[in-house]
Design a protein that fits this description.
263 residues; alpha+beta; four-stranded mixed β-sheet
């Protein structure tokens, strides 16, 4: 500090300097008092102020951590490299999710936010630039992380539809390849001109079942024709059999199931 002159004549002036000793960042105020023997201005005083700036010019870094696969509400952790001011749950940038109104827990640098997914599928979680440290440095934006929300009810419904579609197509394929089967879809049965539609489908999200009825009319007729050919070759009485017993081949029906167990 430059000292004042010990005597200042009437109408004269003098100058001095005061040093600002930094004790913290931000605005600082002080008063200067000069003792003198002036008749009406003793002591002489005035106010001074200044803003303290730190040497910190490095912006805070921030990292977001969250599970990659979730089935319901979950917690994400936001960690800054140094304490920041005014960070709130609403500052977390979310796609396909919402953040709770208050942090589940927090320290000067670590914040835990609870997130509720909106719908089945991909979620993103990030923290944009905007917060600041005590020196006024704005944080860098965090690298966005992803979480995959598995809505189990949606998966069950979707899986059931996929299995049902597969089984319907498979039924059409089986019955189209084997003319001795009736069943399949109504469309396929109509295209083949089948005698009757006997397939049945049933199922839930976890179990699906498709049943076919097998028409053995043609099989029975084929067997009867073989016997008739054999009798004709040996003579009507050779085997003690006549044609009468084979005039009306038996119509036999049986069935089988295709079952799919979903997990």
């Amino acid at each position: 500090m430059k000292q004042l002159a010990s005597t200042v004549p009437a109408g004269g002036s003098t100058a001095f300097e005061a040093a600002f000793n930094l004790s913290g960042v931000g605005l600082r105020q002080a008063g200067v008092v000069i003792e003198n023997d002036d008749a009406d201005e003793a002591p002489f005083s005035f106010a001074v102020q200044g803003t303290g700036l730190s040497g910190d010019t490095i912006p805070p870094e921030v990292v977001v951590a969250a599970p990659s696969r979730v089935t319901g509400p979950f917690e994400a952790t936001v960690t800054f490299s140094e304490p920041v001011l005014g960070f709130a749950p609403g500052d977390v940038a979310l796609a396909n999710g919402t953040a709770a109104a208050a942090f589940a827990s927090q320290t000067g640098t670590t914040f835990v936010v609870e997130i509720t997914p909106t719908e089945h599928g991909r979620m993103t979680i990030g923290v944009p630039s905007g917060g600041s440290d005590a020196a006024g440095n704005t944080n860098r934006a965090a690298v966005t992380v992803e979480a995959n929300y598995i809505d189990e009810a949606y998966v069950h419904r979707r899986t059931g539809r996929v299995i049902a579609n597969f089984m319907s197509r498979r039924a059409d394929h089986i019955t189209a390849k084997d003319p001795d089967l009736t069943g399949g879809s109504p469309r396929a049965a109509a295209a083949r001109g089948a005698e009757r539609h006997r397939s049945q489908a049933s199922g839930t999200g976890a179990n699906n079942r498709f049943a076919f009825a097998t028409n053995l009319r043609r099989i029975a007729q084929a067997e009867a024709l073989k016997k008739e050919a054999a009798i004709a070759a040996l003579g009507a009485g050779a085997m003690g059999l006549g044609y009468g017993g084979l005039d009306s081949p038996a119509i036999v029906e049986t069935g089988f199931d295709i079952s799919v167990q979903g997990k």
